[in-house]
Amino acid sequence: MILEVRDLHVEVSGKRVLNGVSLSVGYGETIFLLGPNGSGKTSLIQAILGNPSYRIVSGRIFFRGTDITGLEPEDRVKLGIAASFQMPPKIRGLKAGYLVEEVASRFGVSDEYVEKLVSLLRLEKFMDRELYVGFSGGEVKRFELLLTLLQNPRLVLLDEPDSGVDVENLAIMGEALNRFLQGDGQLVSTRRAVLIITHVGAIAKYLKPSRAYVMMNGEIFCYGKGEDVVSQILESGFEKCKACFEKARRRVWF
Amino acid sequence: MVLTDELKRRAEKALDKPPRYGLDLETSEFTPDYTGLEAESLRDLSERLRNIVKSIGLDTGEKSVLGSYLQVDQRVAYSRSHKKGVKVLSLKEALKSLDWLRGLYWKAVPVDLDKFTAVAALYEEGGYVVVAEKGVKTEMPVQTCLLMKSPRSLQTTHNIVVAEEGSTLHVITGCTQAPESFGLHAGISEFYVGRNATVTFTMIHSWSRGSHIRPRTGVIVKEGGRFISNYVVLKPANTIQAYPVVRLIGKESSALTTSILLASGSSKMDIGSCIRLEAPQTSGEAVSKVVGGDSSETVVRSRIVGFMDGVRGHTECNGILVSEKAVISAIPELVAKAKDVELTHEAAIGRISEEEVFYLQARGFTEEEAVSMIVRGFLESGIVGLPKAVEEYLKKAIRETITAL
Predict the structure, then answer these.
(1) Do B130 and B167 sit in the same domain of this protein?
(2) pLDDT beneath 70, residues of chain B
(3) Is A85 within 8 Å of B362 when comparing Cβ atoms?
(4) Do both B363 and B345 map to the same domain?
């Protein structure tokens, strides 16, 4: 397994946001994590990244067999985890292009590869801008994907790459992701994996999930074959999923 | 001594007059040092001095500047202009060769403002005069440098910058000192911005921690003129107190004063500006960006006074604290002396954003690197209204200082 989350309980400002989440991602897999707003999907990503605001009450996170639960965020990143944030902060005065150069040099990515990705994601004209100041929703998502891929990660975490993004932007991002997963970077595809948070599933048009998990109220409700889960949710929404889960839980208990 | 008896009498009377803001000091504890040096070119300086002035960005080859002035302690070491229509002279030379300069001498700063203007007058020796003649528009800056190298010394300087009608002038001043030096710097700067002229003034301070800095600055702007100042403190002295007063006396004139302050150590800074909107359709803006580190204490003042209907003023202070012990106080003051004025202010001071720090950590940077990047961006975003070369110069200075922290 590239990632294994075991019975994770997490609090933010004293409020429980994850209640015993267990999830695994295998090498070469594309995993979808679905769920309504506020179900805990972003909290899970932030906990995996080591955000200090997300306090781990109990449970463990393993990355490529190593327990990373107590590691500093930058050390997790060095091991090969990279994330696209759903709503990254605007950083005034920080040139987007400067950050691109710094990230690329830190992760040993060649200038040619940077140019190629920038062009593929159509971000040339944003390099002189302050980070995310005045960017549209789609532009933020594309730029987040650029920074994420420049980290040449083994595990890519994408937090809602498809929310608030038009079809054109989504197609551009889908192409970049597919190329990356097919070995466009320095690692071959079988040594990478992607975990994608989505609550609308629009990204499924461009990336086929091998498996999918559904989260609600800070718990994993169900999981299954990617396409099956996505089509179920698209068809019947999360309510049916919830009913199914309640039924299953009752069956176990009684 | 070129002071008139009247100025001398007023200065002597003010020798014990405490400053309105900031810590008071006993000026007699510091002694002027006249040993100094003279140089035929900035390349003639000793390697050590050359490295010190280069560290604040002085171009010793003078390729990117129109002219230069260097003062070491009390002595004028070098002054030269390489551009026709732009004069760079020492104060003494200028008072001899420009007969009209007497009419401006000590007119924008009162000689008896406080004990620091008084000592600057009574020990007046060095200082630069930069003049852009009528209609001369320049892109490259004039560079000036005030260097202190003797311990416990008093450095005074009296600078006069004149932009004649329709001219554009950029002046960069670097203030620095040898590491072993400490003392009191009392600098007078007078700016006269003519009709439809523009002056940008960029001052970078890089003092040592034992020094006390008391500049006194007055600016007078005529019709349609524009004055832009960037006051940058990257390596703070022991104490700095500055409160330039900008008078917009011609209609449609404007001013923008920006203070970019990186406070560290146990420094105490009291920095601000006053913009007086004295003529119709004038506008002024005072902006401060402060980073409070270590156990520094910084007071940021801004005062905008509207005397006429139809004038506009805005003041803004943004501060971030990167240490538990640092203190930043913002004191905005708006004074309306006419019915139809538009004066506004905003201020925000807070801890560095944890969200931004974590975001950069998640991009592979350590916490310290993330803080540096945010601080640098925060300070750089305050730089506006400068020609590209000066902007680059300032950004480089900020980058180098923050990297070295």
Answers:
(1) yes
(2) 1, 404-405
(3) yes
(4) no
Mean of pLDDT values over A171-188:
78
Is residue A251 over pLDDT 60?
A: no
Is the Cβ pair B361, A77 closer than 8 Å?
A: yes
Number of helices (H), then strands (E), belonging to chain B: the values are 7, 22
Q: Which domain holds residue B160?
A: 5-352
Q: pLDDT by residue (tens digit) across B216-236?
A: 999 999 999 999 999 999 887
CB contact under 8 A, B356 and A49: no
Helices (H) and strands (E) in chain A, counts: 7, 12
- Rounded CA-CA distance A169/A161 in Å is 10
Whether A109 and A152 have beta carbons less than 8 Å apart is answered as yes
User: pLDDT, tens digit, for every residue of A119-149?
Assistant: 999 999 999 999 999 999 999 999 999 999 9
Q: Which of B307, B329, B352 is the last residue in one of the domains? A: B352
DSSP string, B25-68: --GGG-EE-------SSGGGS-HHHHHHHHHTT--TT-SS-SEE
User: Same domain for B337 and B357?
Assistant: no
Return residues 41-60 of A near B (CB < 8 Å): 49-53
> CA A97, CA B372: separation in Å to the nearest integer?
17
From B352, B379, B394, the end of a domain falls on: B352
- Hey, is the C-beta of A85 within 8 angstroms of any chain B C-beta? yes
A92 vs B: CB within 8 A: yes
Give the pLDDT mean for A104-127: 93
Please give the single-letter amino acid code of residue B44. D
Strand partners, B142: B67, B171
A94–B377 CB contact, under 8 Å: yes
| pLDDT tens string A67-102 | 999 999 999 999 999 999 999 999 988 999 999 999
Q: The whole model's pTM is what?
A: 0.85
**Residue A195 DSSP label:** E
Residues 6+ apart with CB under 8 A from B125: B32, B34, B74, B75, B76, B156
Q: Which residue of A has its CA nearest to B356?
A: A89
If asked whether residues B9 and B128 sit together in one domain, one would say yes
B372 with B405: CB under 8 angstroms?
yes
Sequence-distant (≥ 6) Cβ neighbours of residue A184 within 8 angstroms = none
Co-location of B18 and B96 in the same domain? yes
Cα–Cα distance for residue pair B113/B338, rounded to 1 Å: 27
So what's the pLDDT on residue A187? 52
Same-domain status, B383 and B287: no
Q: How confident is the model at residue A188 (pLDDT cuts 50, 70, 90)?
A: low
d(CA B386, CA B112): 33
* Angle between helix B388-404 and B367-380 (nearest 10): 150
**What is the pLDDT confidence band of residue A185, given thresholds at 50, 70 and 90?**
low
So what's the pLDDT on residue B94?
96
Instruction: With a cut of 90, say whether residue A228 has pLDDT above it.
Output: no
Instruction: Give the DSSP letter of residue A118.
Output: H
Q: Is the dihedral of CA B78, B41, B232, B388 positive or negative?
A: positive
Residues B366 and B251 in one domain: no
Q: Domain count of chain B?
A: 2
Could you tell me if B346 and B233 lie in one domain?
yes
Question: What angle, 0 to 180 degrees and rounded to 10, lies between the N-to-C axes of helices A137-150 and A111-120?
Answer: 160
Residue with tokens 């309105």: B20
Do the bridges between strand B153-163 and strand B75-81 make them parallel or antiparallel, or are there none, so unpaired?
unpaired
pLDDT value at residue A253: 46
Which of A74, A91, A102 lies closest to B374 in CB terms?
Answer: A91
